[in-house]
Amino acid sequence: CDFLFFLESRYLSFDDVLTWSGVSAATPTEEMNGAGNLMDFLDEPFPDVGTYEDFHTIDWLREKSRDTDRHRKITSKSKESMWELIKSLLDAWSGWVVMLLIGLLSGTLAGVIDLAVDWMTDLKEGVCLSAFWYSHEQCCWTSNETTFDDRDKCPQWQKWAELMTGHAEGAGAYVLNYFLYVLWALLFSFLAVSLVRVFAPYACGSGIPEIKTILSGFIIRGYLGKWTLLIKTVTLVLAVSSGLSLGKEGPLVHVACCCGNLFCSLFSKYSKNEGKRREVLSAAAAAGVSVAFGAPIGGVLFSLEEVSYYFPLKTLWRSFFAALVAAFTLRSINPFGNSRLVLFYVEYHTPWYMAELVPFILLGVFGGLWGTLFIRANIAWCRRRKTTQLGKYPVLEVIAVTGITAVLAYPNPYTRRSTSELISELFNDCGALESSQLCDYINNPNMSRPVDDIPDRPAGPGVYNALWQLALALIFKIVITIFTFGMKIPSGLFIPSMAVGAIAGRIVGIAVEQMAYHHHDWIIFKNWCRPGADCVTPGLYAMVGAAACLGGVTRMTVSLVVIMFELTGGLEYIVPLMAAAVTSKWVADAFGKEGIYESHIQLNGYPYLDVRDEFTHRTLATDVMRPRRNDPPLAVLTQDSTTVEDVETLIKDTDYNGFPVVVSRESERLIGFVQRRDLTLAIKNARQKQDGVVSSSVVYFTEDAPQLLASNPQPLKLRRILNLSPFTVTDHTPMETVVDIFRKLGLRQCLVTRSGRLLGIITKKDVLRHMAQMMNQDPESIMFN
Fold this sequence. Notes:
Layout: H1 2-10, H2 14-21, H3 28-32, H4 60-77, H5 82-123, E1 126-128, H6 136-141, E2 157-159, H7 160-165, H8 171-199, H9 208-215, H10 226-241, H11 249-264, H12 268-271, H13 274-293, H14 296-307, H15 313-333, H16 357-387, H17 394-409, H18 413-416, H19 419-427, H20 461-484, H21 494-518, H22 523-526, H23 538-554, H24 558-568, H25 574-591, H26 596-604, H27 621-624, E3 637-638, E4 642-643, H28 644-653, E5 658-662, E6 670-675, H29 676-689, E7 698-700, E8 716-717, E9 728-730, H30 735-745, E10 749-754, E11 757-763, H31 764-774
Helix pairs in contact: 5-10, 5-11, 5-13, 5-15, 8-10, 8-17, 9-26, 10-11, 11-13, 13-14, 13-15, 14-15, 14-24, 16-20, 16-21, 16-23, 16-25, 16-26, 17-20, 19-21, 20-21, 21-23, 23-25, 24-25, 28-29
């Protein structure tokens, strides 16, 4: 609340300034030069004033002021008539309507994506003869000939070799299935990269680094457009189905934000105000995570902790509502057929013990080390992609990585299946009805216990065989994910990171379980693990490992723990998850503060000021401001002595985003600041609508027209586009304070003065360059202005 009050009090609206200044009567000079009815044509707003160009940063203070003005006008008009009152109520409810629409569409798209991925993933191995649109599981659900022991086998589902040759077993059938598996994977990935390359280049990647940058106030036109939404939805299905080591969770955040941007265009309240639009996008990001993980509360916390730059309390409520609607919509579709929102929902029946914190913390250490390794290796590979010939052949790169992935993945059953199914199996507790290799324990024939309370048992040959396959799968996933993330197809990182952690966790869990069984008399097991008791749950270790690795890569903490416990449906395992997540973050932060998304933001040179970064260098505003000592003087406009031709020449010869307005070039007393885009549009519109405006017309920013001779052309009044309260600091202001101001107020630029005299200007790009220089990085890596 204090922050909003500061915004309102610090940045006066144009209407307020004019009201407080008063409107002067026509002066004799105005009558002399025929300007008695001078037209301030901005009294009638024209399109695009106050908007921003592509790859520019918005002015948060300006957007807040405009929304305050709009709200004030609606409130005052609502007292005039019943119709105006109804319009004000509709305006107040428009935010909730947008949230409802975002939740419905994002939930529906997530359900469709889940169903399509399930079908197309199984299509690589075979087809359902009774209904080709059924996945393997759905096909056998409908069969009356399926037995419990062979629940994955039914006459209606046939593998490609059996369908083509009539033989389901043998070397020939294996080779044919192998070949068609690779062929389908190549086809899916080729279609995905081709659609992205031709129709929507912004549909590639995870999307979260760009979403973070957009929410910080940066403009990337088309990144949240209709074509991006359509192509990202289609190609996400193709990319995940191809079997590449990627997930759909990150791209679903991008898809949900595209939905939010689409519905913003229906309401002028959001379409004409970039600040309000970003509040909607923050809520949409929460809805995206809600449908990605089936975790509505975790989605809201993810948006707050990881994505959003400005997150007022009102946005928190609306994010919660959007996440709720999205989760409800996905639950109604029930894409997994288990009445759950995710494929790997699990419930454990055994409590954890204090001694198990040691392996949990070790998994946290592994997650931090894996996160550090992945970030450094992936960024190095992506930098090589951008700076070498490799970046010129994105289609060939995708095809090559897909081919290698498919060829190496098929022989191992744990890498052949989809990553979500792999995580689901690793999370599962071994009950009496499980048929997985991981549950191939040697049972005691005299055992008679409830199904949910099976004691620890010695591992059978299937478990040891599965351990070797999981170890190979772990190495494969670690290596291939490094080269997959960042290619020109939709690619999420949540699921591959969770898979790495889940594999490592399951291996550790089985090891601890067997140690507890064979050495229950050891002091570490004696107090809590008695013979015949169900002591260790390997699936819990898999879940903790998944959380640790995901936290090591993304540096998430609170939202990560909430997402993971929403997956399990129980609060009992929060402490192990917290211990692993915190340890993972500590270990990863010891090698570098940036998570994978911040690292990609730096790699791409996006102008993003991270609120979590600390600036401790002892520099002053005068060290950063422009112009520097040997630079040309600062480009400025005077309040009443610049002509239209001078302004147009200045705009043509420079590429600055705005210009300070001073009393005169001699005094350089600051009056205000005018945006380049507004100036260009104002002059263009004035030439079309206002008679007498020519190149020699004087442009003035004062309330009263300057005293001109009668022979002079009619002057042009542009006071209404002038920001009369630009943010200023003195030349001796510490840069630590300046950086803090830019972060917390979302400034575009800041003017530097001394005793009211203009000295220079500091832009967001200048701040980022200075911070990079202080950290011994290339200041020119900030590519966008």
